[in-house]
Amino acid sequence: MDFISVIGTRPQYIKLAAVSREFSTAGIQHGYIDTGQHYDSNLSSSFVDEFSLGSAIANLSVGSGSHASQTARILNGLDEVLQRSKERIVMIVYGDTNSTCAAALFASKNNIPLVHVESGLRSGNKRMPEELNRIIVDHVSDLLFAPTQNALGNLANENLAHRSYFSGDITYDLFCFNNNRGFYNNYTSKEKFYVFTLHRDSNTNNKERLLTIFRSISDLNCKVMLFGHPRLIKIMSEFKIDLPANVELNPPTSHRELLSFVKASEGVITDSGGLQKEAYFSKKLCTTLRTETEWVETLESGWNALVHNMELLPDIVTRDVPSTHEPIFGVGNASRIIVEHLVKEYT
Ligand code: UD1
Q1: Domains in the chain and their CATH numbers?
Q2: Less CB within 10 Å around the terminal CB: N or C of the chain?
Q3: Are 254 and 231 in contact (CB under 8 A)?
Q4: For 38-82, how does the pLDDT look when each residue is reduced to its tens digit (9 = 90+)?
Q5: Which of 205, 245, 206 is nearest to 226 (CA)?
Q6: What is the Cα Rg of the chain in Å?
Q7: Residue 84's pLDDT band (cuts 50, 70, 90)
Q8: Residue 320 CA to ligand 1 centre (angstroms)
Q9: How far apart are alpha carbons 51 and 294 in whole angstroms?
């Protein structure tokens, strides 16, 4: 069987890096298809270079669009690329994006064994496109790898325990690998600062909400480094919103550089799923601008906090650092667990 990962967005290049390294170490052939959901080079090809991912089997170049058209174009694209090899494939998908959901639908409609990595997460908010993607993908997958015990419990609650395994989090593998080699220590700053990212449609698509967020950010008596997702930059320009004086705008940056900034920062303010975890790995306080999170364990320990009422932001951002830090994301060997399992099951 051929192992093929389907990816297409920034966080998925990072996840692919962890898993493809483990396939190489095991001497197992593995390729990937890029849906092209993200097409700006600093959200896509720059990560291919950073992680030496090599060429994709195909790039479907689907780009932006409504959720329906993005999903449909990925289904069509996979049909064209894989029509002659469907019988020999095991497909691996990651996380909760439209690329993940479309690839999972393709695999299940073609009887292709499907593996979901970063499975079992639930925010409880079905208005989030990612939550629907997670539920759909988990229920059509053959093998589910949960990054946390809580995610494993969610799968059991949905009668999926018989095909679910705890692996730990593959992005924690990457964090440990790079951190042990000192790759995240290349930034020092005399000035205190926070790392800030924002891209969820619930925060970006409403002008009032965006204005409120930036007003509260300007109340933080501290420099804020914003790494601007293209979605945010485009919408801010459409809404004619100016950045507050304490915010420094930077383009999205490499994984290593972003983590270097996180490690040197006072904390992280974000609505990203991945960055909530990376703040936790780095033992930095994270403040999440959402009403709920799928990474619930990070809230229990106090390392992460949710803020929706933006007036509370300054107080929450400057809360005390917790005294304990539990290994909720495993021990940095999630990719190995996953690859060993796949080899046993499919070769
Ligand atoms: C997607 C994922 C989200 C993930 C995020 C990481 C879905 C539903 N959402 O959100 O879960 O956390 O990626 O970044 O799959 N755009 C560009 N250039 C690009 C990509 C996007 O300008 O390379 C702009 C376009 O205006 C586009 C908008 O961003 O319409 C939204 O892009 P899309 O890929 O649909 O979702 P993300 O917000 O990036």
Answers
A1: 2-169+330-346 (3.40.50.2000), 193-317 (3.40.50.2000)
A2: C
A3: no
A4: 999 999 999 999 999 999 999 999 999 999 999 999 999 999 999
A5: 245
A6: 20
A7: confident
A8: 33
A9: 27
